Input
Amino acid sequence: MSKYVSTGIRDLDKMMGGALRPGDAQLLEVEPGTGEMAFIASFLDDGIRHGELCAVIGYDRPHEDILTRLKEFGFDAEEPLRSGSLLIADLCNEGKYDPDHTGPILMTENLYDPNSMLRIYFDLVQITDKNLKSGKYTGARAVVYSLSSQIMNYKFEPAYKSVKKAILMARQSYATSLTTLNPSMFDETVVAAFEHLFDSTIVLTMKEVKGRFQKFIRVKESPVAGFYSDEVPYEIVDSKPRLLTSFAESIQEFRHYLKFNADGTITLAGLRFLLSNAVLVNSLLEQAVKLLGYKTTSEQVYNLYKTNGQAELGILLKTMNVSLDTSSPKQILEIFANYISANGSGITELTEYTDAAMTFKVDHSLCSMSERSDKPMGQYLAGALAGAAELVLGKKVQCNETKCLAKGDNYCQFVCRVMP
Output
């Protein structure tokens, strides 16, 4: 059996102290529209990939709907169901109870009887114990979707007792569990009572930030786990949760080169910045496009930032005592990507690198503040990346923005190619 269990999301593991332990019970508090199914899919997918027996216990939706939703978020349950590594307990529809469990779908005879539900839990524990003892699986995990329906169907006291028993049974079989709850449906005292049954509580919320809705995640202080986290923004990108923690990591990397000046500016690795409003910056760019036209503005901004990119990288390397002779081009471009993240231009990552081309992915760039456009609006970043690449490679480089938040894409993407 594995010593640690991942949520399937590396940055969330970090927020929770590194990883979960077998038998841990997590409560996932969600608001509508926060993408909880993406977290569930990641949790299950990680379990299947690591050879674990997984189960989904559905109260809110029939199993057909749950499987369809999981597939939308990248988890195709067809093969795990066929192989027996995934079990579904459908407690949304009444059906004939099968004590021998000849198929992967478990049904209950009475939706409103908590004892009927506990019998399903007990059967799942028995199946889990049998399979773990045989060595067929490396561990077990379960998803309960959702606790809200349990409370509505059984009322508070019966639901509380049944959930407490279910968590104890899961711990005895070392099954790590994830249970969803919409806290807005219940009184705070009810939510607090259920929170104390779990090892930790993960909270997904939605807030309005500068005219757009932003998703946030945090781990609430837990009397069992003894830790908590600050709110971290996240997005659902390519059907997967992406926590925007890279900004903090980039600042940490440059912490020795960060200085706050008396005139209100900051100096980062020898370069001075005025912390300006991103909306203002984009407003100026948009006005320039209207006055000078898109083509002229794009060329001027690109060329300006290309020069700046070369100069900034030169100062950066000198300040950090990094040499072009002893570091690889990829390493230096990764440093420059982290620098872009740290100065607030967008959370930047070098995703692909060859001698002929480099691809950068940028989350939450200033383009996210731009008016919707049918053309890319990240010429400043394209120019800066091209300038940095030319300095590192000693060759001419052309950088194009192939995806842009202003165009409606989920992130900005820049491809830099070495010119012949």
Q: What stands out?
A: The chain has 13 helices and 17 strands. The chain has two domains: 10-244, 252-418.
